[in-house]
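Dear colleagues,

For the upcoming journal club I promised to circulate an example of a predicted protein-ligand complex. I picked one with AOF because it came up in last month's discussion. The inputs are reproduced below in full, followed by the predicted structure.
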Amino acid sequence: MLTDFMQMAIDQAKLAGVATYQNPQVGAVLVKDGHVLAQGYHHYFGGDHAEVDVLRQVTPEQARGATLFVTLEPCSHYGKTPPCSARIVAAGIRQVVIGQLDPHPIVGGKGRQYLLNHGVDVVTGCLTDKVRALNPHYNHFYVQQRPWITLKMAITLDGKINTETPTRTLVSNHASYIDSQCLRSQFQAILIGERTLTIDDPQLTVRLTAMVQPPVRLVVLNTSTVALNHRLVQDGQAPTWLLCRQAAASDDQLRNSPNVHVLIGNWTPAAISQLCVEQGWQSLLVEGGAHLQAEFVAAELIDEWVSYIAPMMIGGTGLPAVTGAAVMTPLTFEQPTVTCLGTNIRLRAVRKEV
Ligand code: AOF
Ligand code: ZN
C-alpha cells in the first residue's frame, strides 16, 4: 500500500527532531517489487536531503526502476546541497510518490515538474494531512507568509500569573517547566515584554537539550536602558534582539555586546511579525506578559494557545495573564489537547480558521 510506505517515510522524518532548524523534517523510503530497499531522512540543517540519504544506501542497479516515497516534494535548486530532483532522474527512479508539495517559493512545484519533464511517474498527495503535520511552522510560514505565533502562559486556576508583589512567583511545577523547555526548543524566536524582563530576568534559553541554533530572544522595550544588567544581554547564550520604542544612550553600548541587536521602531505585533518574515524566523513563542499577550490577541496574530494551569488561586488583585487591548468578537480555538503534568494541566489549542 502506498500509505504504508509513506507512513514509514513520516516516521523517518521525525527522527531528526528540531535539528533540521529552518529546513523541514523530511523522510524518504525506497521500494522495489514491494520490498523496502532503504529508509532515510534529512538529519540536520545543511546536511544531505532525505532523498540523498536513501540513495546512498543502495547500489545504482538497485535504485534503477525503483519507487521513491518522499514526504516533501524533491527540491529543484542548488542550495546548501545540489537538487534532489536531478539526482532522482540520474538514478533512474521510475516513480516518485510525494506527500506534499513544497510551499517554499524556491521549489514550489518546480521539483515535481522537473521529474515529470524527465519521464518520471509522479504521484502527488499521499497522507497529506499527516505529512503537513510534520512541519506546521514551516508550512504556515510559506503559505501565510508570516510566522506561526503561539501564546504561552503559566497561570493559576483563577487566571493569574503573579501576586501584586513585583517579584517572580513560581506558579507551575517541574513537569510543566520541562514541557515548556521542550516547547521552546521547537520555536525559532521567543518574545517577552519589558515587565517580564524586569520582574523575572529570564534567560529564555533551552537548557535541557543542546541546540545548534537556539531560538533568538526578542524583548519589546520602551528604551534599551532597562536591559543593561539583565541576563539575556549578558550571557551570550543566544542572539538577543531589543525592540525599542525610543532610542537611548545605552543603545550603542548594548550593540557592542556579543549577540545583541538594538532596533528602534513602532513595535506592534504586525511589525514584530514582519521582522520575523525578514529574518526568516518561521515561528514565534510569546511568553508574556499580560499586555503583550493582549496586543497579539487584539491584533488577531495568534495561531496557538498553550496554558500551564497550576492548582493555585491568587484572587482579585493578582496580575491577570492577559490585560489591555481586546477584540470585539472573541477569537475561537479548536483541536484542544489536555495533558496532565503531575498536579498541573497543559491546555493547548489552535486558532479556528476563519
Ligand atoms: C531539506 N531536506 O530532505 C528536502 C528539502 O539549503 P538546502 O540546500 O538544504 O535546501 C533547503 C530547502 O530544500 C528546503 O527549504 C526545502 O524547500 C527543500 N527540500 N530540504 O532540508 C530535505 N527535501
Ligand atoms: Zn533536496
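Two points we might discuss: The CA atoms of residues 138 and 192 lie 22 Å apart. The chain is about 30% helix and 25% strand.

See you all on Thursday,
B. R.
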